């Protein structure tokens, strides 16, 4: 239903906005040694 209310946003954008609104803070990912 959120996707229908905001067709200009991608699903990932909507999920990210909802998680931020809930107080979830993303942690940066550490690079894996040996991978580009």
Explain the layout of strands and helices:
Layout: H1 2-5, H2 11-21
Please explain how this structure is put together.
This protein has 36 residues and is an all-alpha fold. It is built from two helices and no strands. The model has no long low-confidence stretch (mean pLDDT 86). The protein starts with a helix and ends in a 15-residue tail after the last helix. It is elongated, with a radius of gyration of 14 Å.
Tags for this model:
mainly alpha; 42% helix; elongated
Report the biggest beta sheet as strand number plus sense, adding barrel if it closes. none
Global mean pLDDT: 86
Structural class: mainly alpha
Number of strands: 0
User: What Rg do the Cα atoms give?
Assistant: 14 Å
Report helical residue fraction.
40-55%
Uncertain parts:
none
Q: Choose one word for the global shape.
A: elongated
Distance between the termini: 38 Å
The total of helices stands at: 2
Task: State the gist of this model.
With 36 residues, this protein is mainly alpha-helical. Helices cover 42% and strands 0% of the residues.
